[in-house]
Amino acid sequence: MNSLSLLKRASRYFDDYPSLAKLVVVCTISGGGYVAYADANGTGGSPPVLEEIKKKKVVVLGTGWAGTSFLKKLDNPSYDVQVISPRNYFAFTPLLPSVTCGTVEARSIVEPIRSIVRKKSIDVKYWEAECFKIDAENKKVHCRPNPDSSQNGKEEFVVDYDYLVIAMGGRPNTFNTPGVVENCNFLKEVEDAQQIRQSVINSFEKASLPTLSDEERKRILHFVIVGGGPTGVEFAAELHDFVNEDLVKLYPAAKDFVKITLLEASDHILNMFDKRITDFAESKFQRDGIDMKLGSMVVKVSDKEISTKVRGNSGEITTIPYGMVVWSTGIGTHPVIRDFMQKIGQSNRRALATDEWLRVEGCGSIYALGDCATINQRKVMEDIAAIFKKADKDNSGTLKVKEFREVIKDICERYPQLELYLKSKKMRDIADLLKMAKGDVAKEAIELNIEEFKKALSEVDSQMKNHPATAQVAAQQGTYLAKCFNRMEEAEKNPEGPIRFREEGRHRFRPFRYKHLGQFAPLGGEQAAAQLPGDWVSIGRSSQWLWYSVYASKLVSWRTRVLVVSDWTRRFVFGRDSSRI
């Protein structure tokens, strides 16, 4: 029996028995619903009123860490969710360097996005397409299907939205260096890792041909990695292990010709890690024979040579022959994001600017998270007068320690740099900060006017830092935003965020706060470096096993966990696969 016949029968029943109490019948239909309503005081001939319950449409662009985390945690049935991405799977990107050398197979680190969303109890649909234009004024996104998904790849379509979640990630940053796009390999997607693996095997097969000179073999087997960050360092370590543990057994004549070079523009590799980790990594690479050229900036890449300029060397350019280059120097902006930024007045930025609730500045219904966005944390000094006025409840024109303590929780929640500043100065209480502006006065007797208050907080904003563009940040942002969407209606009635210092009331939600859980750097030879919260540093084989256990637990499903662990086991027993498939 369909929904319409049920409604007709209910209508006749209300007509026959008008003395019944109020009754509401709700029929859920995909994309919305209908409410049938009858009143006991109504006349016998009046039919029930039908009102459509329209769901809010949420469009999610991207299936990376941010987008997938958002989808996994979103469970509010009042949304109709449409996912649009040219990639129909989620990839566990921290293991991409392992894919390049066959330590882990590509299939083991991906999970189909349809497998993830089909487990949801809410309406979620996925389309394999690419967004090429965002129309914020009319709340539309313009898309086109992947060439493989359509006959000619040009059937463009438009999708309306009530809320837009931009989680498109980034693209490799070439810094407009000539020849990079044409001649370098990147390590951003699963396809990139597979291509690198093919290129490494191809290089060894080419170098084994009898027609080549020794000079040409040296060039072909010279692997250059540009970028000394975590991805570049891990790939260099993986490649070194692959060559020395597996390939030299299959290509013994090539052993003396292989060379791995790591180019880094700064003075150290892994400069975002603790100095102890940086020093250990550099000394290990030196022992392993990996040639590190620090302070070297790439100025041009041709099909057979890479040109570098060393800082402080009078601008002299050095040319290095190579067989393969992997470019891993940071994150750039997608063209569609760049065009959107120009439309909303953010053309001078690297990524979309959002507020602390991940809303794109100037666009109340658009959210951006992950590598394509950066949080524009508001400064304390921009709101210093409003903070003073809100804390000065007796309107005396001066602020006492007791008054400030009553709002300190809201201030620290709204402006996290204040709490960081207190920790950096080893201050136990806000009174210690206020005392600095007043001098030798007992804490409880401190009373500041607006100018003294400004002086006390003048250096607080120096602790402001942007979040790193990592999978860890993107995943936490996706989880946070999903929780906000789950509680959107409830938070409208009962706000749970900090005080609005420039307005009345409270913010609906608490601002996003990133919690750093630590970071790893595999260095090859079954050794890794771990930097965990609390300034805890671990280096060596034990850290490698910690890396194995953490990454295995973070994989998105039991299927991928089993596959990755089996790949690791296969590698320990049989070695890496060097087939060119």
UniProtKB/TrEMBL annotation:
Q: In terms of domain of life, where is this protein from?
A: Eukaryota
> Predominant location of this chain?
mitochondrion
List the EC numbers from the record.
Answer: 1.6.5.9
What family classification does the UniProt entry report for this protein?
Belongs to the NADH dehydrogenase family.
Location in the cell reads:
Mitochondrion inner membrane; Peroxisome
Which InterPro entries does the protein's record reference? EF-hand-dom_pair, EF_hand_dom, FAD/NAD-bd_sf, FAD/NAD-binding_dom, NDH-2, NDH2-like_C
What membrane topology is given? Peripheral membrane protein
- Look up the record and report any one GO term of the cellular component aspect: mitochondrial inner membrane
Q: Lineage, please?
A: Eukaryota, Viridiplantae, Streptophyta, Embryophyta, Tracheophyta
- Required co-factors: FAD
**Ranges for domain EF-hand:** 379-414
* One Pfam family recorded for the sequence: NDH2_C
* Top EC group: oxidoreductase
Record GO terms (molecular function): calcium ion binding; NADH dehydrogenase (quinone) (non-electrogenic) activity
Q: Which UniProt key words apply to this protein?
A: Calcium, FAD, Flavoprotein, Membrane, Metal-binding, Mitochondrion, Mitochondrion inner membrane, NAD, NADP, Oxidoreductase, Peroxisome, Transit peptide
Reaction(s) the record says it catalyses: a quinone + NADH + H(+) = a quinol + NAD(+); a ubiquinone + NADH + H(+) = a ubiquinol + NAD(+)
Q: Which named protein is this?
A: NADH:ubiquinone reductase (non-electrogenic)
